[in-house]
Each structure stands twice: as structure tokens, then as C-alpha cells.
Amino acid sequence: MLRAAGADFEFQEYEVSADQYMRTGQPIPADVWPELAKADSILFGAVGDPRVNDAAYLAGVLLRLRFELDLYVNLRPAKLYDDRLSPLRREDRRKIDLLIVRENTEGLYVGMGGRFKRGTEEEVAIQEDLNTYLGVTRILDYAFGVAQREVVMVDKSNAMTHAGALWQQQWKAVAKKHQHIKTRHLYVDAAAMQLVRDPTQFEVIATGNLFGDILSDLTAELIGGMGVAPSGNINPETKRGLFEPVHGTAPDIAGRGIVNPIGAILSASMMVRHLGHTEMASAIEGAVESALRAGECTRDLGGTLSTQEVGDAVTKRLRD
After folding, report:
1. Which residues of 177-191 are buried (b: 16+ CB within 10 A; e: fewer)?
2. What does the alpha-carbon distance between residue 151 and residue 2 come to, in Å, rounded to a whole number?
3. Structure pTM?
4. CB 101 within 8 A of CB 174
5. Is 20 in contact with 29 (CB distance < 8 Å)?
6. Where do the H-state alpha helices sit in 79-201?
7. Among this protein's residues, is 156 annotated catalytic?
């Protein structure tokens, strides 16, 4: 598909699958990591396998890439390409085109904490929420940098008073530098409600790691489901990027030819745009939209095509 779009990139494939993890015990092989670390961009499939009930596998692949490459911006766009894919009843609420800018290297996902008196009735589990001045400030700066109309900052500062105070402090400081952009603050529960009520009111949402993860799954359902949701993990300073569909591996339907490839294709489009090929990225996105409007899609979107056939339909539009 990328070749059909005219991408003259140098590609190198690496295996970081559950199979190789079960063989070697290494989430990312030692000889592969240096190659990934110096790549301009990484197009990632998905991680997760029911045969591997080990949190170290996920942490050693996806979280390692995000944390050690300092890909602190997680971009989760939600754009509705065809009204029939939206569960919203009102037609005027379906023109969804928003972006969640999620902090990607801090929060509850850093793995700080522990379990004490494990296996007893007195067991205590602690998960710590890490927020730094640098981390909060730079994600808010990025959100304002990509917004044209409004940035909505989402937190839970009324309950998470320490972390929330830092977010509120830096939110006000950063907003002062961008007075041409409208600003609004919502608690995360109110934001979820507003996204369901009228997602068209949002342009850019800036939030932390956990809330961004949850809200972007909600916005994915508003545009047709997890199968169409792309994402990017980037560092604006180093220009490194990791692009992946949001949906994960879906092992229950793997290998049956019914998996929706649109999320992966749109993730590739995001990668191409990140690499500076704006016209090519728009062409890929346009081919996806055309295929969806023609009903050339997998059955989760009401179509009858296989995974390969959807890929072929998008590729054909790029070649025509």
C-alpha cells in the first residue's frame, strides 16, 4: 500500500512477536533494539498474545519503545469518514474530527508501586501516578502548537489533588502564551459525557496517560470502532516516531481474514505525514475514505470483504 502511494522509503522488518519472546525470553532481541533506536520511524503491528500471561512482554516491547525513545506525545485522532459508521442518532453531531494529545511517558503507566503481603487477606497494592513539571509542560505546549481553534485540558484535579495541581498550574502558564487559542477545562467524567453528547464541539484534547487511553477508546467507537483508529507516538525534538493501530492483536479473530486493516493503514498515513510527505498522507487517507463510502470494508463496518480485499481496495484507489 505504501509503495502504491509512491513511498520510496527504505524498509526493514523485525520480529518482536510472542513467538520469538517464547523462544528467547527477550521482548525485543538485543540485536534488534539498536536498529529500532536509530530508525526515522517505526510502523508497529500490535503486541499481545493469550499464550503469554506476562506483563513484562508488553512492557518490554511497546512501553520500552515509548519510554526509552522518549516518545512523549501520543496522538489519537478521531475522524468520521462516513456517517453510517457513527452510533450517534443526531446528524448534526456526526461531523467528528478531533485529536487527543495524550502524555505518553508518565502517569500510572510507568509501573511505580508494588504489592505487599501478596496472596494474603491483608494484601496491599500500590500504583503510583508520576507527573513531572517537564512532562506536563511539554505535552501542553505540543497541544497548543497543533490546535487552530481550541484546546480542552482534561484531568481529575478535584480528586487527584497533587497531580491535578501541577496540571492546573502548567495549564494556566502555557495557555497564557497562546492567547489566540480558546481554552476550556473539563474533569474526565464530564469530558466523557460531552464526547457522547456532542463530539463535534472538540478540536484538541490534552490530557494525561490514563485518561487519554480511556477517552481515545471512546472516540474510536464514535467513528466506527477500534478497527479504524490509528495512533502515533512521537518526539517533536528528535523527530522519532512509532505508529500503530489502537486495536491490539485481537487473538480471537487472528488468521481468519476478517480483521479490519483500516487502523493500520491510517497509522501508516500518520507516519508518512510525520516524515514530511503531506500529499502522500492525504492520498492514503482519501483512498481509505473512498473505500469506506463505497462500502468496501470488513464485516465489523457492515461490509463483506476480507482483510486482504480491503487492503487491495485502498491500494487500487492509490494506483488509479
Report:
1. ebeebebebbbbeeb
2. 32
3. 0.94
4. no
5. yes
6. 133-146, 161-176, 188-197
7. yes
pLDDT per residue as tens digits for the range 121-180 = 999 999 999 999 999 999 999 999 999 999 999 999 999 999 999 999 999 999 999 999
Q: Which of 141, 217, 300, 312 is catalytic?
A: 217
As given in the structure block, the three cell numbers for residue 90 are 443526531
Other beta carbons within 10 angstroms of residue 272's beta carbon come to 26
State yes or no: is 312 an active-site residue.
Answer: no
Question: Is 213 one of the catalytic residues?
Answer: yes
Neighbours of 2 (CB within 10 A): 19
**Active-site residue, from 40, 83, 189, 198:** 189
DSSP class of 201: G
**Domains of the chain with CATH codes:** 87-222 (3.40.718.10)
Whole-angstrom distance, CA of residue 224 vs CA of residue 28: 32
Confidence of residue 320 (pLDDT cuts 50, 70, 90): confident
Sign of CA dihedral 300, 302, 305, 308: negative
Out of 49, 82, 155, 213, which one is annotated catalytic? Answer: 213
Known active-site residue 8: no
